[in-house]
Model the fold of this input.
Amino acid sequence: MSIKENPFMSEQPVPAGTFAVIRLDPAASVAALKDEQATREAKEMRPAKYLALVHMPANFSYDPKIGGHPLDLRFFLAGRGLPATPLSWAAIPISPSPPHPETGRVPLCPNGHLPWPDCYIHTIDTIDGIVSRIYLHGTPGPQFAQETYRELRLMAGTDQREYTKKLNEGELQLDLHEP
Done:
């Protein structure tokens, strides 16, 4: 295994449609706020790991401190089981999961199996982040073929438009203050 520290956009070694485990650094996430209380509280939090799918570049900003464009990516979050209601419809099953119980979507098949049988891409949940370290294994992890990934992006776009429509029409009531 090799480790790539602070990669640039120009050297993005992980193609879109590849599964990855991402770890969020709470202190780094609030550093730009320059808020002492937020920094103190973030340092008390434990970094969490999430299963994600590399989606696309999120931002193409130049950082003069590193002399380049840091690798800033958007990820789809994935999880075991469906998203919680009222967004349970906004998911794509990953083989060997069964078809989606609400939408009937058939599972998409990556080129390798995930270690869990009941995983779904949560199409409304995306996260942007600057990648500070990549652990590259000799054998690439599971990923979708280009055509399958294209299909996934189309389904996610449909879900995101439906989500926006339901929010605008008052059909969705989301509790943004849940723990």
User: Anything to note?
Assistant: DSSP finds three helices and seven strands in the chain.
